[in-house]
Design a protein that fits this description.
about 15% strand, Helicase, Ruva Protein, domain 3, alpha/beta, globular
């Protein structure tokens, strides 16, 4: 059986043995996705086993991800034992003794297994109801909150805590950092998870249409207008996500503020207000304080929308998460393309960790998707499979546009780029070590990376 390539299989004999064990057994891949669960594990928590393969651990059980034994075993690369570990399954609180250990394949951690000591099973009906609620919304959001860097883990913790209330949340981050993924995660972990999640990009819709989409219209209010509910009425009991809030026209912002303060919406052309029951999550691709100073975002609306304020880091602020993200995207596209790509070459991973990624996680995801099209089954992604634009400087004025060279040239271009990047990185690390008088922990903090990442680079560049 193999987890590193996103594939897992267990023979019938082994399955019968595991099912005969009284303790619960569960296996997760590197992203916390369930790939195997024995009968005792499923029956003890009233889980519908066959329907849960591919689900993520955090979508089924309600607990702090930093406290989960199986996720800690993956993150810390060691056995984690917990007596009296408590989690929630819907409205039911469960306490178990358990132990988790990492699964190692070819010297690399590729997942983990959990053994749970069984107590008396809770009432099945209550647990089944909770599972149905969880599985109904399991499809996307928290699943893509991949990363264990301190700055990203802090954002994820804040988002999961915010999910427990109805307070307005503002997500701030550059394009491609995953603001909508965070918004969906907050919705899916909230009491509103069974309600709609409706999103609108405030920058993509003209002013004369945006208010109708948000607030609704009455028939004849303008040419072609029909009686229609807006998002604030359609999302009753759910969440409205206002993406790129900083691009909403000021006149619309004033009307939105009134709606939020009065919890009442007026359709365009109607003098009759209708009560709303929604949670509002908004996002901005620039610092909202700067947008306020530039006069494009109302200060009072900013305060109203930023009760919970989460700044999502760029990919360069959490470079240590790149290997996890790469593994996650390869697994995703292996399933989508029915392929068996086994990872990336070491030199490609070095390139990924040094590349500036102006498009953040979204750009990395699309780069992996592109490379998967040109990588054969059983092979790893090499330079020749990567999009050639990653090696271009973007200036067409000085250099005439010429046909793209064959893939082998991409590796040569990458080498030139990498040599320059590595030389600059080596100088920065050497300077930080001198400043810290050889203290690795202090130098790592100054460079904004983990101590483990710094040790790796010190060895790589032959620094003393």
């Amino acid at each position: 059986m193999s987890l590193s390539d996103g594939l897992f299989a267990i023979d019938n004999v082994s399955a019968e043995i595991f099912d005969a064990i009284g303790d619960g057994v569960c296996v997760c891949d590197l992203q916390g996705r369930i790939v195997y669960m024995n009968r005792a594990m499923a029956d003890g928590d009233a889980l519908l086993r066959d329907q849960l393969y591919g689900s993520f651990w955090m979508d089924l059980f309600d607990f702090d991800p930093q406290d989960s034994p199986i996720l800690r075993a993956i993150r810390e690369r060691r056995t984690v034992t917990r007596e009296g570990f408590t989690y929630r399954l819907g409205e039911t609180e469960v306490t178990r003794d358990c132990a988790a250990s990492p699964l190692v394949e070819d010297g690399r951690v590729v997942g983990a297994y959990l053994i749970v000591k069984r107590a008396a099973a809770e009432p099945r009906k209550a647990a089944e109801t909770a599972v149905k609620k969880r599985t109904a919304v399991k499809s996307s959001a928290n699943l893509d909150l991949i990363g264990e860097s301190p700055v990203f883990a802090d954002c994820r913790r804040t988002a999961l805590k915010a999910a427990k209330s109805n307070s307005a949340v503002m997500l701030v981050g550059a394009t491609g950092t995953g603001k909508e993924v965070f918004a969906r995660t907050i919705h899916q972990h909230s009491d509103r998870r069974d309600g709609p999640f409706l999103a609108v990009n405030c920058a993509a819709i003209p002013e004369n249409l945006l208010e109708g989409i948000l607030f609704g219209t009455t028939k004849g209010v303008y040419t072609g207008a029909v009686e229609r509910e807006g998002l604030f009425l359609q999302a009753k009991g759910g969440t409205v996500f206002l993406d790129e809030m900083n691009s909403m026209p000021l006149a619309s912002q004033a009307k939105l503020l009134r709606v939020l303060e009065e919890k009442t919406v007026y359709k365009l052309g109607s003098g009759k207000g209708e009560p709303i029951d929604v949670r509002v999550i908004s996002s901005s691709n620039e610092l909202p304080q700067a947008a306020v100073e530039r006069g494009i975002l109302r200060r009072d609306l900013f305060y109203r929308l930023s009760v919970v304020y989460i700044r999502i880091p760029s990919l360069m602020e959490r470079r240590e998460d790149i290997p996890l993200l790469v593994s996650h995207f390869i697994s995703r596209y292996n399933r989508r393309f029915h392929k068996n790509v086994i990872g990336v070459a070491d030199e490609v991973m070095d390139f990924f960790q040094s590349f500036p990624w102006p498009g953040n996680v979204r750009q990395l995801k699309h780069a992996i998707e592109s490379a998967m099209n040109f990588t054969e089954n059983g092979q790893g992604i090499g330079f020749s499979a990567l999009p050639t634009y990653l090696f271009e400087d973007g200036s067409l004025e000085e250099t005439p546009l010429v046909p793209v060279e064959p893939p082998p040239r991409a590796a040569a271009a990458a080498k030139t780029v990498m040599e320059d990047i590595h030389e600059r990185e080596r100088e920065e690390i050497a300077a930080a070590l001198r400043e810290a008088k050889g203290n690795m922990a202090a130098a790592a903090r100054a460079l904004g990376m983990t101590r483990q990442a710094l040790v790796y680079r010190v060895k790589k560049y032959g620094l003393k």
